[in-house]
Every structure is written in structure tokens, then in C-alpha cells.
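Researcher: I'm preparing a figure for a lab meeting and need a structural model of a single chain. I don't have an experimental structure, so a prediction will have to do for now. The sequence is pasted below. Please return the structure as C-alpha cells so I can convert it later.
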Amino acid sequence: MPYQLPPLPFAYDALEPHIDARTVEIHHDKHHQTYLNNLNKALEGAPDLFNKAPADLLKDLNAVPEAIRTAVRNQGGGFVNHTFYWESLGPGAGGEAQGPLAQAIAKAFGSFTAFKDKLTQASVGHFGSGWGWLSVDQTGQLVVHSTANQDSPLSSGFTPLLTCDVWEHAYYLKYQNLRANYVAAWWNVVKWDVVAARFAAAHK
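Model: Understood. Here is the structure written out cell by cell.
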């Protein structure tokens, strides 16, 4: 069966005033849907791949037929990255990480503030379209990094914990060219309990 678009886990206006309702609606219903449609189309000639989760395709792109590998990397990445992004956000969120995740952040970056500054810089300073990430690398260490276009940390052996979408479609209606203002607002809707659960799963 072709992949399906997960429903948005909150109302369009739930992230107001930080991320506006119209942006959320277009971002999810149009952009996210288009990546899904294009991924499903790319896999029509290799239907057995539908037996794998989209994230698993990205973890081993070399196992994807060369003729559709770029499409899976781009469209599959767009689909998986956006699903991950929406799951990371919610109303009444923000603040700081707690518990073991907070301790790991302090150990890796010196403090939560230093981590926040580093991820902000990675997101705001990324040239062109892409994503800012907090991930666990192959050695189990927390790292802040960015990826271009729809590339996924999964394809590099990383386990993503949190992402900030810095494609213009994620913020342009409200913030225009002021990406830094969008990233500053984005911190107010991060669901740290979700990020903490991902961190715990990565260290089982």
C-alpha cells in the first residue's frame, strides 16, 4: 500500500502566535502532501519497497534502486523530515529540556543556553533551504548540525532528536526574510517530552 500522510497532531492555529495558522495549513496540507505524493510515485516501479518504513529507506539508500535513489532521497527525505518536524511541536510547549536529556545537553554543550545558541546558529546560518538538527551520532554523542535540502540525518547514520525546518515555506508568510525571528519563535513550540523520549529510545 502507498504511504499515507499522517494527520497534523494539532489544529492549524495551535502554534499561534509563534507559527501562524495559514503557514501550518499550507506547510502540512500542500508541501508535506506533495513530498508524499512524489515518494509514492517514485516507488510505483519498485512496490516491494512499500514494505519498508520510509525512514528505513533513508537509512540505507544504497539498497534503493539507483534509478529512483535520488527521488527517494529528496521526496522521502521531505516526507520523513516533515513528519518528524510536526511531531516535535505543539501548543503550550517550549521551555527547556528536563531529566537525562537536560543532563546530556549540559555535558555535550556546557549548558542549555549554549546548546540553544548553537542550534539557533546552525538553523539561521544554514545557507539556502534545509534543516537544523539535534542528533545522536554514531558514537552516541549529542551533536548539532544542519542538512541541505531534504537530506536526512538518518542517511548518515545519525539518530535525529529535534529539527527546525528553515525552508522558506516554513516561515515566509509571517516572517518574510527574517529567518532568525522565526527560529526564535520556534523554540516556544518545541515539545521537550517528545525529544526526551527519542533520546531515551536512542540509548536503550
